[in-house]
Structure formats: structure tokens, C-alpha cells
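Q: My labmate handed me this sequence with no annotations at all. I'd like to see what the chain might look like in three dimensions before we decide whether it's worth expressing. Could you predict it?
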Amino acid sequence: MGGEKSLQVPRVSRAQILNACKAGPDAVISLIEYLQEQHQSTIEQLGEIIEGLRARIESLEQKSSTDSHNSDKPPSSDGFHKRIHSRRQPSGKKPGGQEGHEGTTLAMVKHPDHIEVHSVCRCGHCGNSLKNQKVKGHEKRQVFDIPPIKVEVHEHQAEIKRCPRCGKLTTAEFPEGVTHKTQYGNRINAWASYLKDYALLPYERLSQLFYDLFGMTISTGTLANVDRRCSEGLGDTVESIKKALMCSPVIRCDETGIRINGKLHWLHTAGTEDLTYYAWHARRGNAATDEMGILPEYHGIAVHDHWKSYFLYQCRHALCNAHHLRELEFVVEQFNQRWAQKMVNLLLYSKELVEKAKAVGQKQIARSERRKIEQWYEQLIAEGLTANPPPPNNPQQGRPGRQKRSKPANLVERLRDHRRETLLFVHDFRVPFENNLAERDLRMMKVQQKISGTFRSTEGASAFCRIRSYISTVRKQGISVIDALSSVFDGRPLLPPTLQRS
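A: Here is what I predict for the chain of 502 residues:
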């Protein structure tokens, strides 16, 4: 059965039994002892097969019972039969806008761009003519729309004059950036970069969109050149983002898989509330983070999941408790271990305590509360270790080395070994409870792969990372992305306030 050992059940013929009887009692005893040994060996083989099947069934059951709410799987992997899991408590309010909420209904403006007056000629009741009657007032209604977009052509004419003294011609200089007979302006280039690297449109669809919206035919090759120019113009600016991150007290790190030339690579990110930096690499581990060049020289606090390569760096570390909550949920659902539910309650209690303290301007919670949380944590770790004892050391079974542990055992051991990194958010309010910001920074990269598919070259992936680092950073700081991208093609990329201060 699928590679399992086949049972070898011994069979003794009638002739063998008669021969043993003729040979005397010793031969019969030897035959019986042989059969007993073979029977015992068969039972042991059967036990091994049953144990292997049991482990396989358990593994398949655990795999089928995991989704985005109790594992690291993304929500997109849940399929059509998604289960709704939320830790929000019901507020008791009805759905929809609440009383007193101002709303965002489209409001009339005082000075419309165009006014069209509609005359009334006859009475709507008796039909009498109203042509010569004085207007008593107007009922107003406004329609908001976008006029047809027409591309404007700005022609530059450089004067040519002949010198009366030397007789030679001199031509006036064109403005900076005007270098070709015909060329696209900075706003068109900015829109192309925005739609390619923020709206995530592939080149062919982007070319079609320019024709449908503006009546312009821009080839995919031209669009690729625009993207390349934008990336090249952001070299120093994105390097400034990287240096600013290295000086930040807390950064969030994460990684996700992407495809370049059809092969799996990894996209790594480091970010804060104001900054984002992306880089791709063929590897997921420390070779990638070394080349990325942030963590090797970083001395602040890095927030991440428990991916082991992050712990190779000498900075302080904080773990994402959203990951812990999902894994604890799995232990509760699949193994019914009470310590896991208690740990969920502790983490959520600590999170609420910190949020309340921040809301009233406190810098930290009381020392007695911190001590209470730590003692509660240690008690639950002890309960978890008791519920998941180490396997007996039996050299006769299995392969040499560390024996495989269950998921609950691995989780409780990680929480024990990284207790400080797990609870750092309680002691230092700069540290977030989870790493959702980094996960959000990566989420749109997965969307890019779904819409546009694989990157066709490493150069295209590098350009995308550089431009996206810039777009994400300016958006986080409330700057118009179009204006920011237009400044890149002016040759003077806009520096967000955070970079200006640094």
C-alpha cells in the first residue's frame, strides 16, 4: 500500500507437519517455536504498518482542517467553502451608518464649472403660457462627470539667429528634458508607471487602456522603456529609503514567493508606518537578507514571524502574535488542549491592556501588570509542556537524531524559547502586537502575480521593486502618487518628509 511493508505470513504444508511428527517430539517443538517466532514478527510488521497509516491519516486530517484562520495559509487558499472566523465582539448596533454619522454623500458645490438653465414655458397645472413671467427662483441639481480627455501637444520652438558680426547661426536652448523631435510628457509617463506598478496592469492591457481613454497608441516596448527610466531615476531615492529604515527604532520584515522567468523566487520587504523597501532574491533565507543589506547593520527591533534566518542577526527581535493566535487556534480545534485557549486569552488580554494604556497617553503599563502577565505566561508554558511531553528515547525505532514532534509540541517549545520576543509588545509600546503592516505591504505583490503572471526578467522584477518601494512610501506619507512619479521624470524625485528629515 503506497510503499508500506508487505506482510510475509508463513505457511506450513501438511507434508512438513507429518515429517516433523515422524522425526519425533524435538522436531515438532522446533516447528512450533519457528511458527511462534514468525507469528510475532508478523504482528510487529502489522503494528508498524498500522502506526504508519495512523500517522498518515493524522497528517491528512490536520492538513484538511487548516485554513487561513488557524495557520500561515493565505486567505486565497481557503477556496469556495470559506469559514468566517472573527475575534470581534458584537457591538449590538444595527448594520449600516449610525446616528450622527456625517457620511460621505456627494455634496453640491457652490461654483460649478458649467450652468445650464432649463426654461419653463407653460403652467404644469392649467397649461397657461409662462413665457413672459418673471423667474421666481431655481431648483438646482448637479451632475459630476469627467469630460472627454484630449491629449494636448505642447510645441517648443527654439529661435535661430545669425550673428551680424561673425555670421554664424545660434539656436536657443530647449527646456531641460525636451530632447527629441516628439516625446511623451512627464504626466503621461507618470500615469504609465502608476498604472503598471501600482494598478498592476500588464503592458498589453496598459497599451489598450491608453488607446481607449486617450486615443493614444503607445507600444508595449515604449511602456517598458518608461518603466526602466522611472526605475533608473529612483536609484538614489530608494537608497535613501533603505538608509532611513536602518535608522528606524522598529521595522517589520516579511517575505513571500514570486515567480521570475517561471521559477520560484522570494520577495523580501522591510517597512515602517512611513517607509517601504522591497528586494527580490532567489533564496528565502539569510543569503537574501544579507544581500538586501538592512538587517546585517540594523540595531533596532525587527518584527517578524519565527522564520529561523531572522534570528541570525544581532538586532533585537519581536514575534508576530497574529501567527501565534492562528497556530493556537489550530491546537485548540484539533488537539483540544486547554493551555492553548488560555494562551489565546492571555495574548488578547495583554493586547487590550496595552491599547487602553496607549489611548490615555501612558508610556507603559504598571510593573505589577507586566509581572502578572509574565507569571501567567510561564504557568501556561508549563501546562503546554506537560500536555506535550517529549517522546520516549527508543533507539530501536525510527532514524537517529532528533525525533519528530507534534505541532502543539513545536509551538509550546517555540513560545518557551522566545518568551521575550513574544511579549516584547507589553514592555515596549513601540513594538506592535502583530506584523500585519509587513503582510499588507506584500499582499499586493501576490495580486500582481495573479494579474500579470510571472516577471519575464530579473531586470523587470528589480524595476518593479524599486518603483513600488517609492510608491508605497509616498502613499504612506499622504503624497499624491502621480505628482511623485511625475517628479521622477523631471529628474528631481520628490523626497517625502521622513526622508527630508533623515
